[in-house]
Design brief:
Elements lengths: L11 E3 L8 H11 L8 E5 L7 E5 L4 E6 L12 H13 L7 E5 L9 E5 L16 H19 L17 H15 L7 H9 L11 E3 L8 E3 L6 E4 L6 E3 L1 H9 L17 H4 L4 H12 L7 H25 L7 H5 L2 H18 L2
Antiparallel strand pairs: 1-2, 2-3, 3-4, 4-6, 5-6, 7-10, 8-9
């Protein structure tokens, strides 16, 4: 997902052939469960959404977003639409910026797979963290808005918002490393990578001491947010498929990983003149998050980055597998899958950095 324009809504296109469904059945469901005024539908597919196909649905009376499981054979535990629905409902009730959800449908007879419907939030989506659509003096305020939003997420009490059992407390890194290692190793069709193999062995042996638990988004990036049409304010955080109860530093370092990725991977900021761009440095961005969450700093930061690069490489490895099986939901899946090897190499470099910093 590397477009360089900010749009009034994330880019949409006609529904791709593999992801079409009976729109009349959907109209009947919407009329009965969400919007009794719903008329003839206009359905278009968002260009993003690497895993769960996502659609804009205009009913004549309102606009909604439909997010569904993809068709075809799916990996066990993936595409948990019901979990996304639950976390969105809980966070919206707590006042956190997410779309309001309207209904969850587990009847596969409507569109072919389970789905949910939520508000369509009008605003701006920035696909590139350089924020080229903005003047340089404006950009730091948008970075600060992202920083404040993820810090606010991590300071929510899961129990207080009804998410005490949304994941397991403690042991997050061990579980995640095991999960993504297994998904990587089990997807034989997508192949193996030597750096990934080394990380599968190295990561479990170098998890930092200490443990924390917070609501974790799992994919917190500028292109998973809708900003106010004219202000540096986050209106909605999207794409909660990977959310869970997790370690807040894993979630934050995934977000801050943009500083250590090249432009060819998730339009990273590595090597950029941040001052000329009007963007905060990595150190300043980390310090702002620490100030908001009451931390003196983030020891073992390179480990967290290595872990997240490995995790992202495993996710892209999964996209590669879906591409080869013909079930990839994004038209840009091939481009994403091609990043597995370079990202795994970067992850191993961060692991080596973590080892050197430990001595």
């Amino acid at each position: 997902m590397q477009q360089t324009t900010a749009t009034a809504a994330p880019d949409v296109e006609p529904v791709r052939a593999a992801f079409r469904f009976d729109e009349e059945r959907l109209a009947q469901w919407l009329h009965a469960n969400v919007d009794s005024r719903a008329g003839p539908l206009q359905v278009r597919q968002f260009k993003g959404g690497q895993s769960n196909p996502t659609y804009r649905v205009d009913t004549g009376s309102a606009s909604y977003v439909l997010r569904r499981k993809p068709p075809g054979d799916l990996l066990k535990g993936a595409h948990a639409i019901d979990r996304e629905y639950r976390v969105l409902a809980a966070l919206h009730a707590a006042g956190f910026p997410v779309p309001r959800v309207h209904g969850l449908c587990i009847d596969r007879g409507v569109v072919g797979t389970e789905f949910y419907v939520m508000d369509c939030i009008e605003g701006r989506v920035f696909w590139n963290p350089r924020l080229p659509e903005l003047a340089a003096p404006e950009r730091s305020a948008y970075f600060d808005a992202m920083n404040e939003t993820i810090a606010r997420l991590h300071t929510l009490d899961p129990a207080a918002v009804g998410l005490a059992d949304y994941g397991r407390a403690g042991g997050y890194f061990a579980r995640q490393i095991a999960r993504w290692s297994k998904q990587y190793l089990d997807d034989a069709l997508a192949g193996r990578d030597p750096c990934m193999d080394k990380l599968v062995d190295w990561l479990p042996q170098h998890v930092p001491e200490g443990d924390e638990t917070a609501i974790s988004h799992g994919d917190f990036r500028c292109d998973n947010m809708i900003f106010h049409p004219s202000e540096p304010r986050v209106l909605a955080v999207l794409d909660w498929e990977l959310s869970t109860l997790g370690h807040p530093l894993a979630d934050f370092s995934y977000h801050a990983m943009m500083y250590r990725l090249p432009q060819s991977i998730m339009t990273g900021l590595q090597g950029e003149d941040l001052q000329a761009l009007g963007l905060p440095t990595e150190d300043a961005y980390v310090a702002a998050y620490c100030a908001r969450t009451g931390r003196a700093g983030i020891p073992n930061y390179a480990f967290y980055i290595a872990f997240n690069m490995f995790r992202l490489a495993a996710i892209l490895h999964g996209i590669k597998g879906r591409l080869l099986r013909g079930t990839a939901s994004s038209g840009r899946a091939a481009e994403m899958a091609a990043n597995v090897e370079p990202l795994a190499q970067l992850a191993w470099q961060q692991a080596q950095l973590a080892m050197s910093e430990a001595h």
